TrEMBL record:
Protein name in UniProt: Iron-containing redox enzyme family protein
Feature: compositional bias, Low complexity: 46-71, 214-228
SUPFAM superfamilies per the UniProt record, alphabetical: Heme oxygenase-like
Pfam families, alphabetized: Haem_oxygenas_2
Length: 474
């Protein structure tokens, strides 16, 4: 995926790691004053053995601290609305703080604006990521989507299906989809891919919305995909494999394995907590929209993601253990004010695909890309955390994905996406587009994080978030 196969689970997998909160070790990149992350308890990290390249600082706390009971980890969300990042979120949050009511959606201001250092991301001129890096737009969309997940304290639950809010969300989504279309080229890695229909070209759900630059052209649909003699499942698996292999993003997982200090690793985990604390939920939206082989394969994957019926084995719960062992606040949404737009865009893409039936093919492709780029990055994350003194409990999340996703990769590409392409050949292009979006966003995220670290800065937002401490309140 994005890491030269550092992997998309970078999106999901990378989405599984963290970065530091103490004085830098390897290279002393980012100190506590720059990240503003405060441990909620002594970090679990066991000091590395003598001679290790990295040495845990005394502030990391005693070795092998027993994590809190799973009872506290399973507590509800209990987070208020985040701080506004611009005129859209200020306007939106003012309304959400009141009882549900009708209102006219706001006009979107001018071109989307990358902020908080995101402009440092190096992308080709033809691939315009501006809406993906717009702090105000991404947070507003994230807040709208979150009403379909855990919601916010103080926000009436009836807002979830309020017609005025849904209309507003549609306008935000139109801008977001236009941004994805400009930033994510259609797959064209060879004759097999070039034969795929382009049915997933963005279809804004509302009237045209002002945007930066010309609107992307919509390619004509094809009625079916020419399927080789090997069959649709084998064809789809090969097409996805070629797409993943062609990705050449920066190796964030390799950096975390060999060079990152503890603070940077904790910082990485903070980014990934936005998705991993609700891991698998966005893709589960596809289950009632599928039938046959594709549905059975997705349920098989999701069963593992949810721990096979054991709450403590749910991947979101394993990630909470990692956060606690790193001395981070593991409550749902604790770091929402600290993560930049590119991190929110990763989560928003999954919600966009998951909440719209028309994007069900893209959602499956997105999940397949996650699974196909997960095992190697997670192995690297585990090795990197152990290098920094992480114990078995801290690394269990990564270890689990090394094993599980090696199996999920085959199921996702062949059974799930292949089965879907066989049943809906006209939507095979959507599957590949969803995979391409996952890879591109993870690449954009990795580029942002590494660029910040290499210039000695934090990749988190330094303004508006303040110091993050323990406890459910802010």
């Amino acid at each position: 995926m994005t890491d030269g196969h550092t992997g998309i689970r970078s999106t999901r997998s990378a989405t599984r790691g963290g970065a530091g909160v103490r004085g830098g070790t390897a290279g002393g990149h980012v100190g506590p004053s720059s990240t503003g992350l405060s441990p909620t308890e002594p970090a679990i990290v066991t000091p590395p053995s003598a001679g290790s390249a990295s040495t845990a600082s005394p502030s990391a706390g005693p070795a092998a601290v027993t994590p809190p009971s799973t009872g506290s980890a399973l507590a509800g969300a209990g987070r208020p609305l985040p701080r506004a990042r611009g005129p859209i979120t200020a306007w939106l949050f003012d309304r959400l703080a009141r009882p549900p009511h009708r209102f006219d959606p706001p006009p979107l201001p001018g071109p989307a604006r990358p902020v908080n250092g995101a402009a440092a991301v190096d992308v080709p001129p033809a691939a315009d990521p501006a809406p993906l890096l717009d702090e105000d737009l991404q947070l507003a969309l994230f807040a709208c989507y979150e009403l379909h997940y855990q919601g916010f304290d103080g926000v009436d639950e009836r807002w979830e299906w309020n017609p005025s809010l849904l209309e507003t969300r549609g306008i935000l989504e139109a801008r977001f989809e236009e941004g994805l279309a400009r930033a994510v080229p259609r797959p064209s890695a060879g004759p097999e891919l070039s034969a795929v229909p382009r049915s997933t070209a963005p279809k804004p759900p509302v009237a045209p919305v002002p945007s930066a630059g010309p609107k992307p052209s919509t390619a004509p649909k094809s009625s079916a995909v020419p399927v080789p003699s090997a069959g649709p499942a084998a064809w789809m698996r090969r097409a996805l494999t070629e797409l993943v292999a062609a990705d050449d993003g920066p190796a964030l997982s390799a950096y975390l394995q060999r060079e990152a200090d503890l603070e940077q690793f904790r910082e990485f985990v903070v980014h990934r907590s936005i998705y991993h604390l609700k891991e698998a939920d966005p893709h589960t939206w596809a289950i009632p929209r599928l039938r046959g082989q594709a549905k059975a394969a997705l349920v098989e994957i999701q069963t593992d993601e949810y721990g096979g019926g054991r709450a403590e084995r749910m991947h979101a719960e394993l990630f909470r253990v990692t956060m606690r062992r790193l001395g981070l606040d593991d409550s749902y949404g604790a770091y929402l004010d600290r993560v930049p737009a590119v991190t929110l865009a990763i989560s928003n893409t999954m919600s966009l695909f998951g909440l719209h039936r028309r994007h069900r093919g893209a959602l499956l492709g997105h999940l397949a890309a996650f699974e196909m780029t997960s095992s190697l990055p997670n192995r690297r994350y585990g090795r990197g955390l152990r290098r920094l003194g992480g114990d078995e409990a801290a690394c269990s999340f990564y270890d689990e994905h090394v094993q599980a996703d090696a199996v999920h990769e085959q199921i996702a590409a062949h059974d799930m996406c292949g089965g879907f392409a066989a049943a809906h050949p006209e939507l095979a292009g959507d599957v590949l587009y969803g995979a391409a979006c996952a890879l591109a966003l993870d690449r954009l995220f990795a580029t942002h994080v590494l660029a910040c670290w290499r210039r000695g800065a934090t990749s988190l937002r330094e303004h508006g978030g303040g110091e993050v401490t323990s406890g459910p309140g802010r």
